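Run log // design_07
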């Protein structure tokens, strides 16, 4: 599934030089990612395996539970705005069922003032979860978007465990690319949700997902010289794993980032013990954001990534006490929506992450 839409040249010029020229420039811009942990509505979507998220399904997913989930997600986004003093300019999200749940989310009273607009495509994932991007049109002008399918065609240097028939039947989330302009500068944002680790498998599939996002970004850099690229998502891998360190060419230090490399700010944070989720008591950072050479080594007077955590790390894992289990077996881990098959009214099993850019 591949879709793209393009604004006409005239419309793009009007958008770029109209509201952007008159809008007051903002000192810092926040770019983030949040796995919303199964944001489903209460209705069946044809062709999607969403039955457990229906009122008569395994999770007894009622309107009251859905509304609580929406409130919780909006509350986290609003809490990040309170800390940063500004709304996210761009927020990638994953594990969303459809556009309807995103429309309900951005209309939540706590975040409605941000006026988030939505970029979303229905993808082929069998469980029915997609990635999407929320953005503020007062800060970013949308130029084009594309849903990049996960395919095995043109893959190279990866040995796959799936047979050709299994490859043909394989379905997972597409990679979303959103091309926009912020204060006259071109950006390409990639939102990923790479294949699962269930059963300890999928390393080759996540490598392919990283390869797909990376190689598409090279094409964007060739088409738009100087464009600033950001790859974000639930990678189902840590920053030290091959999908990011090898296939996305993620480097730990800015000084090591060459023209075809990416700076991976959460790599050093992972080594320092930061986590966005826990599995069997072990902390991981699967929710990563990487930026290309043009954003890591920006020209003077243009947008550049900034250190924001302890004035040392270039990323932040956003966690607050209300988002975290305060007692019991899972003390210190994300306070999630379900536990042991029971609705506990939490937020997500992932903490959100973000970076900050400024000129």
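design_07 sequence
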């Amino acid at each position: 599934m591949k879709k793209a839409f393009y604004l006409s040249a005239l419309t793009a010029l009007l958008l770029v030089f109209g509201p952007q020229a008159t809008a007051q420039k903002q000192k810092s811009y926040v770019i983030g990612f949040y796995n919303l942990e199964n944001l489903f509505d209460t209705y069946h979507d044809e062709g999607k395996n969403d039955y457990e998220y229906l009122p008569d399904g395994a999770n007894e997913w009622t309107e009251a539970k859905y509304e609580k989930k929406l409130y919780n997600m909006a509350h986290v986004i609003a809490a990040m705005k309170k800390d940063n003093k500004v709304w996210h300019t761009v927020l990638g999200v994953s594990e969303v069922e459809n556009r309807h749940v995103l429309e309900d989310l951005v209309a939540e009273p706590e975040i409605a003032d941000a006026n988030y607009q939505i970029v979303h495509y229905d993808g082929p994932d069998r469980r029915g979860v997609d990635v999407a991007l929320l953005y503020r049109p007062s800060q970013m002008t949308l130029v084009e978007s594309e849903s990049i399918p996960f395919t095995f065609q043109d893959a190279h240097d990866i040995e796959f465990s799936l047979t050709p028939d299994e490859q043909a039947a394989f379905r997972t989330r597409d990679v979303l690319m959103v091309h926009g302009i912020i204060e006259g500068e071109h950006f390409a944002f990639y939102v990923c949700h790479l294949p699962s680790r269930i059963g300890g498998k999928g390393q080759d599939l996540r490598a392919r997902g990283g390869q797909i996002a990376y190689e598409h970004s090279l094409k964007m850099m060739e088409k738009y010289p100087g464009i600033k690229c950001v790859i974000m998502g639930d990678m189902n891998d840590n920053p030290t794993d091959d999908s990011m360190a090898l296939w996305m060419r993620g480097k730990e230090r800015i000084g090591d980032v060459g023209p075809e490399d990416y700076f991976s700010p959460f790599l050093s944070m992972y080594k320092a013990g930061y986590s966005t989720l826990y599995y069997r008591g072990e902390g991981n950072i699967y929710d990563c954001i990487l930026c290309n050479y043009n954003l890591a080594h920006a020209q003077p007077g243009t947008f550049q990534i900034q250190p924001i955590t302890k004035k040392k790390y270039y990323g932040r894992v956003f966690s607050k006490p209300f988002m975290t289990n305060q007692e019991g077996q899972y003390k210190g881990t994300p306070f999630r929506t379900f536990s042991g098959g029971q609705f506990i009214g939490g937020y997500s099993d992932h903490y959100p992450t973000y970076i900050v850019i400024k000129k």
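The chain has nine helices and 19 strands.
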